[in-house]
Write a structure and sequence with these properties.
By secondary structure, the protein is mainly β. It has eight helices and 23 strands. Strands 2, 3, 4, 5, 6, 7, 8, 9, 10, 11 and 12 form an eleven-stranded antiparallel beta sheet that branches. The protein has a seven-stranded antiparallel beta sheet with strand order 1-20-17-22-15-14-13, with no helix packed on it.
Amino acid sequence: MDSSEGAPHHETPTLGNPDLPLEGEINTADDTAATVMDGPQNRVIESQFPNQIDSPPTDISTQPFFWSSFNISPRRVQRGGWAREITSADFHISDEIAGVNMYLEPGGIRELHWHQTAEWAVMTKGRCRVTTLSRSGLPSVEDVEEGDLWFFPAGTPHSLQGLGPVGAEFVLAFDDGAQSESNTLLLTDWFAHTPPDVLAKNFGVAQEVFTDIPLHNLWIFPGDEPGELERDQDASGVTWGAAEPIIFRLSRSEPLHQNSGGSIQIADSTNFPLSNTVAAALVTVEPGSMRELHWHPNADEWQYYLRGSARMTVFNTGPHANTTDFRPGDVGVVKRNYGHYIENTGDDVLQFLEVFKADKYEEVSLANWLAHVPPSLVSAHLNIPEEVLATFPRGTQGITPRRTA
């Protein structure tokens, strides 16, 4: 009897199929029963994740799911606007950043409030009026538009109000994954839960002044669209240049990396000093290009996809490597030091945000690392001739350039 009879059949691994036993549907061509899925299925969801159903054969094992989406988050809707959130309560891998997607109609107000965490935000549509009071007691009143961002250190009182003609839609990132938009310190709540005689003493007026205050918080509510910015600034006592800027025009900033494949624009404490607990990058990737193989050593990467379609593989110890797909409104998380890339899989421009709980943006490019190791050592690892290694990129690209025909 042949000693191999009954033993598992293992083919020799090949490039793109490195594991034993081989993984991926491509390796089951002679065993079609291995991929049968006759149980209950949600075909709509399945269609959004082609690389979950038929993953690249380089994927191996599993790891915590690094995809979520505002598209599956309940919307809290009131007159004046709405919000939906993703926190670590329902996306456990996201323990450094919590995200909120909010819309305010023209005149719609997110009531005066503050947080126990820092708030970072980027405008994705429309215009918004933002008011704050700094820790040194200096006010600011600013208008922001698509591509602008703001940052409020923890404890900074603020309000947000949508402007015409379309209101304001934006994404917030808190520097604590557990922070909920429905758990904030609201002006109306504090008034309603302070004895009227104490309010009277505090403001030096009669108790009757507070007879008609709201007894339930407003959160989001409709209001009249504000008038001229300068008028509100004067009424609030704003002194130009006195307060540290709370807004940054990210989309107008000089790119850190730019080539034919796209660009990366950065906002961190080096060019936006107030933002000392959150760093961010606005990444634009042209069709056919990709965010190069890299990792971030100082923080987890929280992603928000603005437009286009993407595929990302995350590489972890083990080894573990898994691939999934992203579309507008989706959120991804890559833990610090995990290798990854993001590929534009569509015919449109891909654009997404990278947000980090850190004071500075940091990344390690695989190509840059290999370019600064003796070529003979790299050749010994990869069996690639030194003359071929000499054609590899010689530094960090950020985005791979588009190939010419």
